Amino acid sequence: MKLGLVIDLDTCVGCNACAVACKQWNTSGTTGLLTDFEPYGKDSTGVWFNRIRNYEVGDYPNSKTVHFPMSCMHCDDAACVTVCPTGASYKRELDREDGVMKKCTLCVDRIYDENLPEDERKPACVMTCPSHARYFGDFDDPNSEVSIISRERNGEQLMPELGYQPVNKYLSPREKKNVGTYVNETNSIKAVKDWVNRLVTR
Amino acid sequence: MMMYHSWDSQNAWLRQILAQNYMYMNRQQAEAMGIKDLSWIWLESKTGRIRVQVKLMEGVEKSTVWTWNAFGKQRGTWGLDADANESNQGFLLNHLINEHLPCGDTGRPITNSDPITGQAAWYDLQVKIYPAKAGEVGIWPNFETIKPLPGSVRAKDKLRYQTHKAVGVSRSLKDILMRGDTRRDK
Ligand code: SF4
Ligand code: SF4
Ligand code: SF4
């Protein structure tokens, strides 16, 4: 059994709902409490297991925004603290208050809680994502949702070259046709047209 | 969206995601105007002007700028520290927008809102943009810091919320012994 997440970068809209749901669930869970420092002051910080980064690819007008949720990827061969590729266990998720490093548990106290209805035995981030960009399941089972979707959409590991064998997979944004951009052109024909239009409206 | 209007400044988690706004501008347009990423610019309308921090991006039309409004807070208000990002980098567009449309000869002011929904019409404002001079940094206008009300206490410098009762991990003995054992799975 190899449990992990698939995150669809094509449909993720960067809303941060998964990050907040994760914090809400886990601050009360096995690894809680997740401390916030100077919550109402300058540059407030806190412990989060899931953070969204935002990028732009390409130049205007053919650019695209990509939102990139990052949490611990549950590497098979992890070197966590020395060189975690996500930063999940480097410094930032050190809870200064408890003096320990904390990270994504895949919501262990949801997925194994048999008191929850079966369809809720999933991570909080997966349950909450409004654009269904997150999937959870067993990568060892070739017929699981995560295996099927990573096969069909060519799911990729992040920084495989480091050799940590991260379990989580990312689905790349699909290639889409560019939508034409309205160009506010100024040329002589348009200038004459505008002038005539102005005369007419008067 | 992680922030809507003033209210969410009280939300300790949301303000960690975003505690200030920027004026977002097309990169190529800004470069042509000598405006650098994260520099300070003036934005001027018929009604007033403000100084704000600019962020350059690709995904915005060249003659348009946009922002999330309502980040700006007077220092000392909303239960935030006086040096909070909202009060020192966040800004409001209110200074640029007139309550009323020009009324011409009718003498009867017309509210500057959408005629159908009544929603404040904050989307069609024409502005002039120019870089701030050297030394002109920080938001403008600024107002004095509001003193705390008598008897009010500063918020805690640390929060440790429990949002629900922690659930026990409930697993049967069989499950603990069997699940995850790849030899038996196969
Ligand atoms: S992503 Fe990999 S290296 Fe980083 S904390 Fe998780 S298991 Fe460790
Ligand atoms: S699986 Fe659970 S702990 Fe991990 S990122 Fe999702 S919500 Fe957070
Ligand atoms: S909740 Fe879903 S859409 Fe929103 S940031 Fe997370 S993965 Fe992306």
Q: What is the number of independent domains of chain B?
A: 1
In one word, what is the shape of chain A? elongated
Q: Terminal Cα separation of chain A, in Å?
A: 76 Å
Q: Kindly report the spatial arrangement of strands forming the biggest sheet of chain B.
A: 4-1-3-2-7
Query: Which structural category do the helix and sheet elements of chain A fall into?
Result: alpha+beta
CATH T-level topology of chain A: Alpha-Beta Plaits
Q: How many beta-strand segments of chain A? A: 9
Number of strands of chain B: 8
Report strand % of chain B. 15-25%
Q: Give the mean pLDDT of chain A.
A: 89
Range of helix content of chain A? 10-25%
Global morphology of chain B: extended
Strand content of chain A: 15-25%
Strand count, sense and closure of the main sheet of chain B? Answer: 5 strands, mixed
Radius of gyration of chain A: 23 Å
Q: What is the element string of chain A, with H for helices and E for strands?
A: EHEEEEHEEHHEHEH
How many H/I helices of chain B? 5
- From the 3D structure, determine the CATH topology of chain B: Barwin-like endoglucanases
CATH class categorisation of chain B:
Mainly Beta
Question: Could you explain how this protein is built, in words?
Answer:
The complex is a heterodimer of chains A (202) and B (186). Chain A has 202 residues and is of the alpha+beta class. Chain A contains 6 helices and 9 strands. In chain A, the strands form 4 sheets. Chain A has a 3-stranded mixed beta sheet. A two-stranded antiparallel ribbon of chain A has the order 2-3. Chain A is elongated, with a radius of gyration of 23 Å. Chain B has a single domain (1-148), classed as Barwin-like endoglucanases. Chain B has a 5-stranded mixed beta sheet with strand order 4-1-3-2-7. A two-stranded antiparallel ribbon of chain B has the order 5-6. Chain B is extended. Chain B starts with 13 loop residues before the first helix and ends with a helix. Residues 182-186 of chain B have low confidence and may be disordered. Chain B has 5 helices and 8 strands, in the order αβαβββαββββαα. In chain B, a hairpin with an 8-residue loop joins strand 5 and strand 6 (110-111). The longest helix of chain B has 6 residues, at 27-32. At the A-B interface, helix 1, strand 2, strand 3 and helix 3 of A face helix 1 and strand 8 of B. Bound molecules: iron/sulfur cluster (3 copies). One iron/sulfur cluster is lined by residues 22, 25-26, 49-50, 71, 104-107, 123-125 of chain A.
